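The records we work with from here on pair a chain with its fold. Taken together, the tokens spell out the fold as the letters spell out the chain. To see the layout at work, look at the sequence and tokens printed below.
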Amino acid sequence: MDTNRDLNYRLYIQREEAFKRTSFQSEFDRYRDIASGNTKKVMQNFEEIKKDYSKGKGVLSDDPTKNVRYHFIISTAITSRMCIEAGMNHNVAYTLSDIYIRRADKCNSGSDIVEMLGEMFLDYTQRMNEIKKNNAASIHVRHCIDYIYEHLQEKLTVRDTAKYLKISPTYLSRLFTKETGMGFRKFILNAKINTAKNMIADPSLSFLEISLSLGFSSQSAFITAFKNLTGKTPGEFRSGVHYLPQSLCTAAESM
């Protein structure tokens, strides 16, 4: 669909109304304050935004409440991605985004959504502050660990992971060992076995299914690796795991 006619008309109206958008730089400076964990600055920014929330923003809907809700969604999406770039786990960032967008969807007034915007900004900022204060690992290592857990079923190498992170394999290997206390391959094996422990708790999964889903070359290779790290075979470990009978699981899920 050709949008030129509509675009030219909207630009004309904006000129006639002397409409001026918020500058790109100032807008992203505010998101960078969130990603840096600067709680004080973020709350100051929000107080300024709240004075005239529509100032510098385009019209996304003729319905005032929907217009605010759409801008809220955009702000939440950008915030989550800026925080991921700064070191927040992507599953945490995206799920938090989902939570706030669903909450905004239930709001009946634009003012309620604006108040929630401040809550959302502060939530992400405080989480980023904790990440920077308590987690000494570099952003590269945190992203590397996320990547490992997302690709446990694959044959991961330092070279391929470094390529994904756009850094040198030698640098990643040295940094990873320094900050995690173990080599890249050993960390992956530990991650696979720890994941296997959770999977073994599900009696419906066979050891062959578990070994294949975690990228082991065979069931015997999985059993050997599991026993070397835990001192027990998968069968011995499963016999010691307490889980609800399937009938009770089904009943619990239906409650």
Notes: The longest helix spans residues 110-134. Confidence is low (pLDDT under 50) at residues 242-255.
